[in-house]
Every structure is written in structure tokens, then in C-alpha cells.
Amino acid sequence: MHLFDPIKIRDITSRNRIAVSPMCQYSSVDGYANDWHFVHLGSRAVGGAGLVMTEAAAVEARGRISPQDLGIWSDDHVENLARVTKFIQVQGAVAGIQLAHAGRKASNYRPWDGVGTVPEDEGGWSDIIAPSAIPFSDGDLTPKALDTEEIQSLIQTFVDATRRAEAAGFQVVEIHAAHGYLLHEFLSPLTNQRTDDYGGSFLNRTRIVREVVEAVRQHLPERYPLFLRISATDWVEGGWDIEQSVELVRQLQPLGIDLVDCSSGAIIPKVSVPTGAGYQTPFSERIRRETGISTGAVGMITASQQADHIIRTGQADMVLLGRELLRDPYWPLKASIELNQSGSLPPQYLRGKP
Ligand SMILES: Cc1cc2nc3c(=O)[nH]c(=O)nc-3n(C[C@H](O)[C@H](O)[C@H](O)COP(=O)(O)O)c2cc1C
């Protein structure tokens, strides 16, 4: 098995094991995809990635990280997204979408506009939700703790978004349960202090993720893979950790998750994370080995040999690249040359072959 072996999950085949990791572009107005998304995602399909995943797409408007996030909370969002998926597929790549809710980390400035909560008179909102009424950091708005009825409506927003994702032509759906956003906030004891069926014990803290996965899987066509992104650890004593991640995956396997995308961190501020080349890959390796599920490795994977090694040694079934693919949309094509594999230069670019 190597980086350029195709991978088939359910009925969908990716031409190689390279995926574009979801990356917010903070470039939407009212959640709509536009020319930026078309060119940004389209270029990475032209560049040879097997799976091109959108940034976090908000399942409801108040679930956006920033006012400029991509959204899929309305049927009106479908048309522009469909233009993007069509182009990605014509380039031979698979189009995926990450469905997300920011929870207590919503309504923040996009990175180049400032830090912290955006006030309402600048397009922000104060209707922020979470499992428990604990703000992310000092000075942030205190979120409202969801009641059980609201949790059921929230699950429905993921279902409706799944239906729209299919209508827009996406063939892979990833549920975002990482990085301190809403679903991760339920998982972690640091952010979930509920005393009802959705908090306390491991079984209760993980309940909402099981329910979202079950509901989404029911509405996603059988032929399409369902991915789940988790923070495999909070990197904090007393927080969510790799042992709980393994157990969660064991619970989710029978519910129809096909691949676990193994990220980490971001549940609370000021945590020291030992970043470095491939620093999260051991989580992918362990979850894959202990549960037998397919995994994706992500985090400072930048060299073709490094990515190939991860696949060859069975640490993951796919690699997801973030910043390296921002720097170079043609990374997969260059990697195919470096690894002496047949990449897929589009015919328009064949004269560029060495
Ligand atoms: C600009 C930017 C935006 C991001 N947005 C998202 C996102 O929408 N959803 C998500 O799960 N991760 C997001 N991430 C995290 C990346 O998907 C990836 O996990 C992280 O950057 C580590 O991989 P890398 O070292 O290859 O960049 C973002 C990262 C960057 C740099």
C-alpha cells in the first residue's frame, strides 16, 4: 500500500490517499460559496488531491465560527456548492464536505480582522450555545446550555445539512467533532458539566455524537462514506484523551462511521501542544490498530516521503494536508514525481511534465 494507491470506501474511490484537510476560508457572505471557494477548492482538485474537502460548513447560522464561514443551513446554499463539486469531480477528485457547529466558539472575528467575539453591530450574534454555560475564555460571551429538546433540533440540523450536501453533489460527509467546537464540547469533561443524559459519564458525554452519527448515516446514501473528525486528545490532564477516543470509535463503528480523521486539541485556551512533524499521526496509528477502523492522519505532514511512509507502515489509510496545500496546491503532483508514481496532470498541463 502506498500514497498513490487508490482507496475505495463504500462505493467511492479516491485516486490516491491525499486529502485536502478542511480549512476555513472566512470568505463567505451569509454562508454562500462563491468564486473564492470555486477557485480555491477547484485548484486543489487540479493539483491532484484525491479528496477535496470543504472547510467547516455551518449546519446553522449561529454555528459559524466567524460571520464569514461557509454554511449549509439553507436550501439556498446548495446551488453555489454544486458548481464547486461538479468542477472537483470533472478533475477526477472526490468532493467532501465537513459539517460543523462552532458551539461556544461561534461569532469570532476571522483571523485577519481581530481577536475575540464579534459584536452584533459588526455582524456577530449573542445566541451562542454549548453543553454547559462556560465561556471559552475570559471576556468571551457565556453560552447558553442546550436543553434536551434543543439537542434534538440540533441533531436535525445535521440531518438537513446532510440532505443538502447530497443535493450539492458531495460524495463524502465529515462530521466535525474536534477542535473545541460543539460536539467536542459535549465529549470533553472540561466543557461538559451537565447532569442529565448528555453529561457526566463517558456514555452520556458521547451520546450526542452517537445520535448525530446515527441520524446522519440514516440520511446519507449507503454508497457514500461518512468520516468523523475528532480531537484524539485535549492535551490536558482530566480532559478527553486517546483512551476515550478509542472507546468512542468502538461505539461508533457499528453505527456506520467509515473513517476517523485524527486531529487533536483546541478545547480550552493556553494549552501547550507538542507540535512537530507528524505529531498527531500516533493517534491515527493507535485508533486504527486498536479498533480496525480506517483512519486519516493530519498535522504537519509536509514531505512526500513522510506521507508515503504513513500509508506504507499502516499508520493511516489517508493523509490530510492543510497548510502545505495552502502553500502549494500542486503538492500531490510534485509528490507523484518525487515518489515515481503516476500522478494525474490534467491534459491541459501535460507539457509541464519533466
Ligand atoms: C486556515 C486554516 C483553517 C482551518 N479550518 C479548519 C476547519 O474548517 N475545520 C477543521 O476541522 N480544521 C480546520 N483547520 C485545521 C486543519 O484542517 C488541519 O487539521 C491543521 O491545519 C493541521 O494540519 P496541517 O499541519 O497540515 O496544516 C484549519 C487550519 C487552517 C490553517
TrEMBL record:
Per its UniProt entry, what is the enzyme's top EC class, as one word?
A: oxidoreductase
Q: Which InterPro entries match?
A: Aldolase_TIM, OxRdtase_FMN_N, YqjM-like
Give the protein name, as stated in the record: NADPH dehydrogenase
Entry keyword set? Flavoprotein, FMN, NADP, Oxidoreductase
Q: What is its EC number?
A: 1.6.99.1
One Gene Ontology molecular-function label:
FMN binding
Residue ranges constituting the NADH:flavin oxidoreductase/NADH oxidase N-terminal domain according to the UniProt record? 3-340
Q: Which organism is it from?
A: Crinalium epipsammum PCC 9333
Cofactor list:
FMN
